[in-house]
Amino acid sequence: MRTPVLTIIGALALTAPASAEVVETASGGFATHDSAVVAADRQAVWEALVHPQQWWSHSWSDDSANLTLEPVAGGCFCETIPAQGSWPAGSVEHMRVIMVIPGSVLRMSGSLGPLQAEGLAGTLTVTLEDAGEGTRISWDYITGGEARYPPAQFAPVVDGVQSEFLGALVDRLGGSVDGGE
Predict the structure, then answer these.
(1) What is the spatial distance between Cα 154 and Cα 15, in angstroms, rounded to a whole number?
(2) pLDDT for 58-95, tens place per residue?
(3) Across 145-164, average pLDDT
(4) What's the average model confidence in pLDDT over 167-180?
(5) Each residue of 150-176: b (16+ CB within 10 Å) or e?
(6) What is the pTM of this model?
(7) CA trace torsion 109, 112, 114, 119 (10° rounding)
(8) Which residues make Cβ contacts (< 8 Å) with residue 39, sequence separation at least 6?
(9) Is the separation of the CB atoms in 79 and 67 below 8 Å?
């Protein structure tokens, strides 16, 4: 028997996710959610968000200065791997931009870090909303597919890294006003 998609979406909507926790680990995947409120306005948050080389904390080259993000649909969140010895420079596509509403939503598709080696598809959605005199940043990463390890085994690690990314962005913007949701 097939479960209608709207029933599944409705059931997920009824489970109010808490800040910085794994919210789903079934069906070969997981979902994480994190949020924070910063004193900066949405324009300032957006400008920082689309320049990850200034705050992103994980890279294959160990240098976030090698990161670029083209904030347009089809744009690449990519990294240049510098040449080493006689080997030419390399590159990594971390994610592909699939939705841009400047000042409101940045959505990208791709499996980050070691998840690239698995049969997983990931989607990162960063949403910006006015929150008093600041901005609420919501950070949702959802992944599913096949992996050599149970999702419940690596979901907490991925959740921690996602929280680290949001924390680095928040720090870049001057710190959190509150703990999020």
Answers:
(1) 22
(2) 999 999 999 999 999 999 999 999 999 999 999 999 99
(3) 91
(4) 85
(5) ebeebbeebbebbbebbbbbbebbeeb
(6) 0.82
(7) -10
(8) 133, 134, 173, 174, 175, 177
(9) yes
